[in-house]
Amino acid sequence: MTTKETKAWTLNGYFILILILALLGTGAVLIAKLNLFSIALLLLGIILLTGIQVVQPNKAYAVTFFGSYIGTIREPGFWFTLPFSMRKAVSLRVRNFNSKTLKVNDTEGNPVEIAAVVVFRVVDTAKAIFDVDKYEQFVEIQSETALRHVASQYPYDTFDTGITGYSLRGNGEEVAQELAQELQQRLSLAGVEVSEARLTHLAYSTEIAGSMLQRQQASAILAARQIIVDGAMGMVQMAIERLEKENVVNLDEERKAAMINNLLVAIVSDRSAQPVINTGSLY
């Protein structure tokens, strides 16, 4: 059975404080006569004094009376509530939880180190106190559980292999949004609202970090080479078309092939080309 937060019965604390002072003062004056009326006034003042509660900003008090939850005091100020009631303080401030660096296997089975920060606050004090045991620990455990679950649903990276879908490295915004949604589902039981969830650490585990770095470097080199080759082909095509258009020189197929070969070697090579001056015929 879940508990829902309700507003506790309260009165202006300053008015009750004046009443208490009046009762205690009158009882103290009449105590010399040792009559029942003076004792009753003193007892009534002491009983009313137990109902005084000061509420600071962004703080709430869940009020229970002999084991029954009767409501929560949220409004800052000086209040009077049911005497002899128990009040438990709950912070309503926005708080951060930084998870530990967890080792998780991604969807491809690669060990990944991942961590996140969760921004949350209590929105239902009754659920936070009565429906879970120590809601701060509940937030920590559920946050790490949700982080493990989300991280295991995606690969670390797609390496530009044409695989569609999200990856932990390439789609951090989407992964963080899904993490926040799953956390909200898990933590709603504790009356907690998740404002934001962000990945703070993401890396391959140490045992495979070296080999995965080589794979990333190889993928980057291949991608760069592809761009260079595409650019070189465009430059060669543009050069031949311009020579033919302006009638600078008439090239047969063999000379075109030699020119294409020379230009591609000069452009695509990762070293500076060494020019060779041809003083004779191409044939």
- Overall morphology: rod-shaped
Topology as a string of helices (H) and strands (E): EHHEEEEEEEEHHHEHH
Helix content: 40-55%
Cα end-to-end separation: 95 Å
The CATH class label of the largest domain is Alpha Beta
Report Rg: 38 Å
Percentage of β-strand residues: 15-25%
Say which CATH homologous superfamily of the largest domain is assigned: Band 7 domain
Number of DSSP strand runs: 10
* Poorly predicted residue ranges: none
Structural class: alpha+beta
Give the helix tally. Answer: 7
Explained architecture:
The structure is a single chain. With 283 residues, the protein is an alpha+beta fold. The chain folds into three domains: 11-90, no CATH class; 95-204, Band 7 domain (Tetrahydropterin Synthase, Chain A); 210-268, no CATH class. Helix content is 45%, strand content 22%. The chain contains seven helices and ten strands. It has helices spanning 13-30, 36-49, 125-131, 135-151, 172-187, 206-245, 253-268, and strands at 11-12, 52-55, 59-65, 68-73, 77-80, 86-91, 95-98, 102-105, 111-122, 192-204. The strands form three sheets. Strands 7, 8, 9 and 10 form a four-stranded antiparallel β-sheet that branches. The longest helix has 40 residues, at 206-245. The protein is rod-shaped and about 130 Å long. The model has no long low-confidence stretch (mean pLDDT 83).
